Amino acid sequence: MLCWGNASFGQLGLGGIDEEIVLEPRKSDFFINKKVQDVGCGLRHTVFVLDDGTVYTCGCNDLGQLGHEKSRKKPEQVVALDAQNIVAVSCGEAHTLALNDKGQVYAWGLDTDGQLGLPGTEEYIKVPRNIKSLTDIQIVQIACGYYHSLALSKGSEVFSWGQNKHGQLGLGFELKSQSAPQLIKSLLGIPFMQVAAGGAHSFVLTLSGAIFGWGRNKFGQLGLNDENDRFVPNLLKSLRSQKIVYICCGEDHTAALTKEGGVFTFGAGGYGQLGHNSTSHEINPRKVFELMGSIVTQIACGRQHTSAFVPSSGRIYSFGLGGNGQLGTGSTSNRKSPFTVKGNWFPYSGKCSSNSNDEEYFCVKKIFSGGDQSFSHYSCPQNIGPPDDFRCLDPSKQIWTINESLIQRWLSYSSGRFPLEIANEIDGTFSSAACLNGSFLAVSNDDHYRTGSKFSGVDMNTARLLFHKLIQPDHPLISQQVAASLEKNLIPKLTSSLPDVEALRFYLILPECPLMSDSNNFTTIAIPFGTALVNLEKAPLRVLENWWSVLEPPLFLKIVQLFKEVVVHLLKLYKIGIPPSERRVFNSFLHTALKVLEILHRVNERTGQIIQYDKFYIHEVQELIDIRNDYINWVQQQAYGMDINHGLTELTEIPVTICTYPFVFDAQAKTTLLQTDAVLQMQMAIDQAHRQNVSSLFLPVIESVNPCLILVVRRENIVGDAMEVLRKTKNIDYKKPLKVIFVGEDAVDAGGVRKEFFLLIMRELLDPKYGMFRYYEDSRLIWFSDKTFEDSDLFHLIGVICGLAIYNFTIVDLHFPLALYKKLLKKKPTLDDLKELMPDVGRSMQQLLDYPEDDIEDTFCLNFTITVENFGTTEVKELIPNGAVTVVNKQNRMEFVDSYVDYIFNKSVASLFDAFHEGFHKVCGGKVLQLFHPNELQAMVIGNTNYDWKELEKNTEYKGEYWADHPTIKIFWEVFHELPLEKKKQFLLFLTGSDRIPILGMKSLKLVIQSTGGGETYLPVSHTCFNLLDLPKYTEKEILRSKLIQAIDHNEGFSLI
Length: 1057
What we know:
The chain has 28 helices and 38 strands. The protein is an alpha+beta fold and 1057 residues long. Among the domains are: 269 residues, no CATH class; 151 residues, Hect, E3 ligase catalytic domain fold (Alpha-Beta Complex); 104 residues, Hect, E3 ligase catalytic domain (Hect, E3 ligase catalytic fold). The radius of gyration is 41 Å and the shape is elongated. The C terminus is likely disordered.
């Protein structure tokens, strides 16, 4: 051990020497063949801990700070600690703390401000005593200020006690000195790696390099850009991105070490202790310029001096106050910048030396400073070992974090009950949000040091792997302990306000734990976790949303899937029946799960869909709840103004309506909602008509009205007749049920006549020969024609007819691209829509965008124009102002493509589409329609082609003499399944009025086949109103085939059978 500095009280432990000041490093004979583990320096005393756990002290003992009554000039053992294996010490001005290997703390010395954390009123304690209030808490680090003390627990809890004159306890303004350790609650949840204390200021350092400071700040020693004391922890923002890994404090200054080996200092600089070649104070952290060319691995602060060790040269540098020789430079001069401590320093090379003269050289192992004294533990070159690196974590001094080695240790106890020590480790780790927040850090490229509002610093794949390695069926005791700790100790303590982003990682990590996905834990872990998440304040929730937004899709989907499963689990319980006494709790649970999904859905939409929107669909909803009833309840809630956007505490009395969270509905459920909404509106229209008719009986001035919207049309003039009626129809009448009558035909419209009406009129209206729509040969699709002679009024009526079809639950065959449905839902068409409508043009545009070279102008020869045909001639239209002279190049090609798409789908047909849009929404616009995605709306309007012919057979019902195994029915299905696809589609058209199936699927297409009395010479007859087929009792397969094909080839017209 080398010692230098103030020796006036024997604090260097050099024995009875004459000097009161040692100006340069001097060997201490006492420590020959002894290995020093730690050194603590008070103002006038020093404490040494050897690697065998024994404690020695020397120096001033006026206030009992030595813990013994022996000599003061040389180190003497503290016998009262003989039974303890001490691993660390820290000293205040005149008090000492010692930490044993079991995590227990002992204290002695001055206690005027409660700095010992012991009960009683004694001014000082001469013999070490255990701080019993910390007995049940495993402490891993201790730190002493002049008159206060800090401790860090294995669970990342920070405790403080002693003087609070300047706020150095971090407990707030209102608290005076504390004689018992107090938990600093404002720091809960943050994973810490170090605590440090100065004269009257305190610091904690997180695993990802964030620094929180509080206490005295007269000289800017907190680095907060001012000189105001702080009574609660404050984040030192300016150093957050600097990868700080170690921090130490002097009386009124602070030094911080970076992962790259740089040093920042701030605070009092009157003696040069900041190393900036000046005596100015610094209220902001400033890098020590003269150490920038070296990699520093150790730093230490004395009262008003600073030391730094550079392993590449083996040298110690010091700066600051030198009046007591504490700089080791051979003089008492102050140094304003780093100066080499005198000594024959030998750098560590990893090789043993055999040179006999090497005894004169010193290889630094570890440096210590405090008060006005400094120490260096060294080894001789022939016994060389690597020096300590303060940038590397000592696992024994760190909080619990989940890692590969810890899990392997837990899993090694595979049989029977594991030891109490292991149980305590598991419980401690999973009872602490901070420990989980410090686990699974993204260590690659030191990424976790970038933790902030946009980046979590978590390696989610590591989290998933380690959680799955830990939670296994083969180790049920571990799973039980983890679940119990989460349920009883961790989740109930979560708060809505968090001190830092590092305290938020838990919300990102825990869904990866397999226990969360176990339905047995839904009500005890997953839902309480969701409640804490939903109740987060806006600021932390916004950060969590940012983190979610950059997750890989499988990881994001995992969270969505978890809470979807929770919802399904709860709805299954609901279907079985919830006792009245439990409905309040059930409501709370269900609202929680749906609220979490709502937040996730908001994130997904805001970021352009991390996962497809349909991943939020809960397909079981229709089976588990009555959607129609749910919709009616929701409408009533809206009518009565029940606000479903308040916190969960206000929601528990309101009946749960899934319609509040429509993003969970799939297309079939939305269709049911739309149909329910239409039925409600129809009923309201009918009721209003009945009321008006009743009133007209008593008040002749009131006209009677028909409760239905009646269309009487002639087949030969279907368009003209329909338009004539619809032009005269009031908006309110569109909401009535539609009934169609074909002149000269006897059929009563129970649905089938209406189906055929829409089929025939849409075929006429959309026929390109009328010039209202343009047919695109390549895609076989149509789009609005910008060359039509028809006025917008006709397009308005076409929109009304399309709306009436949806409103009256009728599939219509519209050959429009998906862009139509996008525009109806106010979404922008894209290049993909152009590819669908005009495949060749779309491919060309894609080639333009993908072209890798810079010579686009010469290769494509394009400008911002489009050439259109105009009755046999071509016409050039500019896509932007001066488009004819604006050449398409690499920089503006995306703008060109966007402009082209915009022209085709928007500008060129704006007035026509606007009229169509207005007519459509006049009939079936509303909130429910806006729930649909474009492809879902398209499938609902025109049906889909997801044919499942076996499902059709399975769902068919039989009447009369027929049943599923009747000989005629058997040969009917044999014939049907042998028909080509086109004939099968014709059969659907013949029987149902459409060759497409409803969005609700084949199972919703109920066919009925009944026997007829006629012989085999009769044809099958369809009743499209009821999807009913009259099938004669054919006995021959070929006759049935011939008659069936003959019937479906002639399918138009209605008559009574």
